[in-house]
Design the sequence.
């Protein structure tokens, strides 16, 4: 996914970035070499927490992939590619695949889902 780094903050040895992409804006922890403000990067995004059907994963009415920053979380909407037997959910967001650990209890009733997370990380895919 292509993003532009708009702001960088270092806190407790973690690098936090505000980013903009064609799909929306958000905040994430940056992994790897320090990014440069106002530079564009091709990144891989990870959700570093288990998500729960009906709570942090919901069926989406929109078929438009997007990223939306909330007060204390990030919402990502994308198309379900697959659900593995172990509950691993694979979602395409604007052509980028995100792998998400889920609770195994439900399956999506719609081809698109919205996922809400507090633990989004990203790194330069060329790193």
Sequence:
């Amino acid at each position: 996914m292509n993003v532009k780094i708009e702001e960088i903050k270092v806190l407790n040895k973690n690098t936090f970035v505000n980013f903009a992409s064609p799909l929306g804006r958000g905040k994430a922890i940056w992994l790897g070499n320090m990014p440069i403000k106002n530079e564009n990067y091709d990144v891989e995004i990870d959700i570093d927490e288990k998500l729960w059907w009906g709570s942090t994963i919901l069926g989406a009415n929109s078929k438009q992939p997007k990223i939306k920053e909330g007060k204390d979380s990030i919402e990502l909407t994308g198309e379900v590619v697959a659900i593995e037997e172990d509950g691993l959910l694979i979602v395409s967001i604007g052509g980028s695949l995100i792998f998400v650990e889920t609770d195994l209890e439900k399956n999506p009733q719609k081809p698109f889902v919205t996922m809400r997370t507090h633990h989004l990380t990203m790194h330069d895919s060329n790193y």
User: Anything to note?
Assistant: Residues 2-124 form one domain. The two ends are 14 Å apart (CA to CA). The chain has one domain: 2-124.
